[in-house]
Design brief:
Elements lengths: L19 E14 L2 E7 L4 E6 L3 H9 L5 E10 L14 E12 L16 H6 L1 H4 L3 H23 L3 E2 L17 E3 L7 E3 L5 H9 L4 E10 L10 E11 L3 H19 L5 E2 L6 E3 H8 L13 E2 L1 H4 L5 H8 L3 E7 L7 H13 L7 E5 L2 E3 L1 H4 L3 H11 L6 E7 L1 H18 L7 E2 L1 E5 L4 E3 L6 E3 L10 H7 L9 E6 L2 E8 L4 H10 L4 H15 L6 E4 L3 H8 L30 H6 L17
Parallel strand pairs: 3-5, 6-9, 11-18, 12-19
Antiparallel strand pairs: 1-2, 1-4, 2-3, 4-5, 7-8, 9-10, 10-24, 13-14, 14-17, 15-16, 15-17, 19-22, 20-21, 22-23, 23-24
Helix pairs in contact: 4-6, 4-17, 14-15, 15-16
Length: 599
């Protein structure tokens, strides 16, 4: 008999009754039933009930053990009586009558209970992550992640993609976030950077003639944490393909994502079928108030500036006259709601930093409400037509200038759809956001910057860069979005040195800067580079959606906390002076803030 187990804790069934079996695992729970001690023994695979009869050293030994102690139990498999079976357990028809117990490891008093659904502070869970991971939900999430990654690999390989590993120690690259730097001991004063993405290397693989590359790539960015973004590091399904158009890239990724979600989503859920909708960036902002539109929400934002321009409603008329805009967010059947519904939304908008949330309710005889009283009848009718409203519907407004009003209208759209229970349930709705602007104006400096990815091919190529207003140039850049969550950015790459130098020049980078920072890739392109493109959907975010978790740390084995700290391993940590000297480093720490008190 094996030293630790003949079976796992999920393996024994009625047909095993009468056999001698040996199980190993953690004490999940203990129950004392008047002399009989019951232990639920848990391993990675499941739970088996252990029965320890009254009397004898075995009972005394078991009574001393705390839950989560690791034991090996040898005994006879016994079929349970009819009234004692547990239909919720695969092993619920049997139990193991203990004849021998070996304690492999005794547990001390736990900082929190592994059993149960109680919520504990996240920092406590992360400090004792190895305990947190024993919980049923966490086991399920991490195993789901493993299966999702295996499915990704299989689906990419079936399409002819080959997996490579790109360097972890590399040079700094402008990916939109701060690099993590690694001092180079043998090259004092110089640093490696951990890759924010394998961007340049995967493009160089295309130059090398490998037409279809992918990897489950670790990426490192020194940026703040969010619910849908892990600080420090994350993983993505990174891929690139040669001689590919934008539609070719879409044709690769759509079946991978649709297939993943079909494979790991409960039966009955709806998933976007066929080609995912393509939504131009400008249309996404106009219609949804976001470049990450949630298509489960049926509401469409309408620009109604013309309705209020020169109207009797002075506040909106003034905004329209000064170059601002008025956005209308329809609210079907909201006119049937009590006044408290509108007051609640008005208070909510003030909490968001807005002045309030104006509205109009439509009835058979026209509109009502403070705005309607000051708006001419023909303008009210025009408003109703633009928004497609009928009696019993309402419409809310966001007014202001620039991106701020667009963003707020998007937030209002989500809030109203949530309050009216309009968001489609049990569905994953995908879309591509396309035609991103190549450049944008920096509000602080007034200079023109890259808006998305500096290595993207501008639509119209060199001719567009030379002859168009840079702010009107679109790029072959795209994002894939699911339920309002951005899963991936991607682009058809700029593979021509002349086009790249011109694009960087528009953004204020001279040729010497480009040569210095990207000389390796630029030189490679001078020796013949195929047109190529790709994308990199985030593994963590995909698993987060499939697991229906609001926080990305729930699907990562050992994540950092919101402050970028590993509380379990106590990282980051100070380094001994001798080690700093070896790396030719001296610390220049910020001085602690001095606080003064007045008595």
């Amino acid at each position: 008999m094996h030293q630790y187990r003949t079976h796992t804790c999920n393996a024994l069934r009625v047909e095993d009754a009468g056999k001698t079996a040996r199980l190993s695992g953690w004490i999940h729970s203990k129950r004392d039933h008047g002399g009989l001690l019951f232990i639920d023994l848990r391993d990675h695979y499941g739970i088996t009930q252990i029965v320890i009869p009254a009397g004898g050293e075995i009972l005394a030994q078991a009574e001393r053990l705390r839950v989560e102690s690791v034991i090996t139990v040898t005994g006879e498999v016994v079929e349970r009586e009819a009234g004692q079976r547990n239909e919720h357990l695969p092993t619920g028809d049997i139990e193991l009558r203990a004849q021998e117990i070996t304690v492999q490891s005794s547990a001390e008093v736990l900082p929190f209970q592994v059993v149960g659904q109680e919520n504990y502070p996240e920092d406590l869970r992360l400090k004792y992550r190895y305990l947190d991971l024993r919980r049923e939900k966490m086991q399920r999430n991490i195993l789901l992640r493993s299966r999702v990654i295996a499915s990704m690999r299989r689906r990419m390989q079936e399409q002819g993609f080959v997996e490579f590993q790109t360097p972890i120690l590399t040079a700094s690259s402008p990916e939109g976030a701060r690099d993590f730097l690694v001092p180079a001991r043998l090259h004092p004063g110089k640093f490696y950077a951990l890759p924010q993405a394998p961007q340049q290397f995967k493009q160089l693989a295309m130059v090398a003639g490998f037409e279809r590359y992918f990897q489950i790539a670790p990426c490192f960015r020194d940026e703040a944490s969010r619910a849908d973004r892990s600080p420090g590091e994350f993983y993505q399904l990174d891929f690139e393909m040669s001689f590919a158009t934008q539609e070719d890239v879409f044709g690769v990724l759509e079946p991978v994502l649709a297939g993943l979600f079909e494979e790991f989503t409960p039966e009955g859920w709806k998933i976007t079928e066929g080609a995912f909708p393509r939504i131009p960036y400008a249309d996404a902002l106009r219609d949804y108030g976001s470049d990450k539109p949630d298509l489960r929400n049926p509401l469409i934002i309408r620009d109604v500036t013309e309705v209020f321009d020169g109207s009797g409603f002075g506040l909106f008329a003034k905004i329209a006259a000064s170059g601002g805009s008025v956005k209308a967010i329809p609210a079907p059947s909201a006119g049937e709601k009590p006044r408290t519904f509108f007051d609640k939304l008005n208070n909510w908008s003030r909490e968001q930093g807005a002045g309030g949330l104006g509205y109009v309710v439509f009835e058979e005889e026209g509109g009502k409400g403070p705005i309607a009283k000051n708006l001419e009848a023909d303008r009210l009718e025009r408003l109703r037509e633009i928004c497609g409203l009928k009696a019993g519907d309402a419409v809310f407004f966001a007014a202001g200038k620039g991106d701020e009003v667009t963003k707020f209208a998007g937030v209002v759209r989500t809030k109203i759809a949530t309050e009216l229970d309009l968001i489609e349930k049990n569905a994953f709705r995908f879309c591509w956001v396309v035609d991103f602007p190549m450049f944008e104006r920096n509000e602080e400096t007034g200079q023109i910057d890259f808006s998305h990815n500096p290595f993207s091919m501008p639509q119209g190529g060199l001719e567009a860069l030379e002859n168009q207003d840079p702010l009107t140039i679109k790029a072959y850049q795209y994002d894939i979005v699911c339920n309002g969550v951005e899963l991936s950015s991607g682009a058809i790459r700029n593979h021509r040195p002349d086009i790249m130098l011109k694009a960087f020049a528009i953004a204020g980078y001279g040729p010497e800067v480009v040569e210095e920072r990207f000389g390796g890739m630029l030189n490679a392109f001078r020796y013949g580079a195929p047109p190529h493109g790709g994308a990199a959907p985030g593994v963590d975010r995909i698993v987060m959606l499939l697991a229906d978790e609001p926080n990305i740390r729930e699907v990562i084995l050992f994540p950092l906390n919101q402050s970028g700290e590993d509380l379990m391993m106590e990282a980051p940590a100070p380094v001994e002076p001798a080690r700093l000297k070896e790396l030719s480093l001296k610390l220049d720490l910020p001085k602690p803030k001095v606080t003064t008190s007045h008595s």
